[in-house]
UniProtKB/TrEMBL annotation:
The gene is yaaA. This is UPF0246 protein YaaA. It holds the Pfam family H2O2_YaaD. NCBIfam families: PRK02101.1-1, PRK02101.1-3. GO terms for biological process: response to hydroperoxide. It comes from Salmonella enterica subsp. salamae serovar 50:b:z6. Belongs to the UPF0246 family. GO terms for cellular component: cytosol.
């Protein structure tokens, strides 16, 4: 079973590390090409391209300039501990045991605009490059064209290595668009999280993102490897709704608190 999640815009390079173990990202040659493209942009161009403030644009221009392909614990941090957003609030990787990190390293993948695919312990230098932005590059007009089949091929390698054929898609639509489902050698399962609001169940972005992290942690902590085991997920009041679920879309609901 391979879990896919999105990265986060918020990064943490200050907190104490939960592990000193690390690996190197596998697609750094590709990252280097994107960095070369990004370095051609001025801070005002970055601000327009990403829709961010001048201050954030200056920060990211500096990050692109300072980025170097030789990652060490001194200039980089494990991806799963560097990302800090709603998904990662639910995941709480900072409290993982060594055995949790082992399982996550094999079964969890983070999709990334700059790094393509990251394993939890892959070192990562700070960046902001969302998958959906239109950064022109030698392979096309945006990052989807840049990555092409590369991300899908890397996921297929991971599936082959663990010997099963199940992908749990907990990534956002923006990031999962970088995967080619028809070329993925796996059964695809998408959990959906609905919260009750005024008597109706719907996706509430903040809660849904956190729930994706909670589900990821549930799989990792319980060492789940079969799709049918996912229906037992019951963290923070969610329950499996068999009636509205299908084989490839598992619906979890939570009543209004």
């Amino acid at each position: 079973m391979l879990i896919l999640i999105s990265p986060a815009k918020t990064l943490d390079y200050q907190s104490p590390l939960a592990t000193t173990r690390y690996t190197q990202p596998e697609l750094l040659d590709h990252s280097q090409q994107l960095i070369h493209q990004a370095r051609q942009l001025s801070a005002p161009q970055i601000a327009r391209l990403m829709g961010i403030s001048d201050k954030l644009a200056d920060l990211n221009a500096t990050r692109f300039h300072d980025w170097q392909p030789h990652f060490t614990p001194d200039n980089a941090r494990q991806a799963i501990l560097a990302f800090k957003g709603d998904v990662y609030t639910g995941l709480q990787a900072e409290t993982f045991s060594d055995a949790d990190f082992d399982f996550a390293q094999q079964h969890l993948r983070m999709l990334s605009g700059l790094y393509g695919v990251l394993r939890p312990l892959d070192l990562m230098q700070p960046y902001r490059l969302e998958m959906g932005i239109r950064l022109e590059n030698p392979r096309g007009k945006d990052l989807y064209q840049f990555w092409g089949d590369t991300i899908t091929d890397k996921l297929n390698e991971a599936l082959e290595a663990q010997g099963d054929r199940v992908v749990v898609n907990l990534a956002s639509e923006e990031y999962f668009k970088s995967v080619k489902p028809k070329k993925l050698n796996a059964e695809l399962i998408k959990p959906v999280f609905l919260d009750e609001k005024n008597g109706k169940f719907k996706v509430v972005s903040f809660y849904a993102k956190k729930a994706r992290g909670l589900m990821s942690r549930f799989i990792i902590e319980n060492r789940l490897t079969k799709p049918e085991q996912l229906t037992a997920f019951d963290r923070e009041g969610y329950f499996f709704d068999e009636e509205t679920s299908t084989q490839d879309e598992l619906v979890f609901k939570r009543y209004e608190q």
